[in-house]
Amino acid sequence: MEMIADRQNITSKDRGALARMVMTLFDHWMLSTEEQAVLLGLAASNRSALTRYRKGEPIGTSRDQYERVGHLLAIHKNLRLLFPENRNLAYRWMSTRNKAFDNLTPVEVIREWGFSGLLMVRSYLDRARGA
What element of type H or E holds 127? Predict the structure, then answer.
């Protein structure tokens, strides 16, 4: 996502919109608070940051957070394109065991491997979509 790559030009308002988008995405994916924190690279106990983001406070300015949000939104886009007629499947996919990930869920892959796991999940979907 080009907008996220050019973080110097992102306003606080834009970062707030990104925070709301990713929190809405987590709601669709029905993730626990701990899982949400893990996907954003936060400590599992950092509920306060999640609460702030849910209220639309700007997402952090670190490169790691921008890249994570960009990859999460790209995963969502891939899932919507792969399952255009089945929104429930697109939303459940992150919490569904997958043979491609040694029977782990994509969320578990990200928890276990961190940022590399996030890239693995995104790459898998990019390939599945032929991107």
Answer: helix 115-129
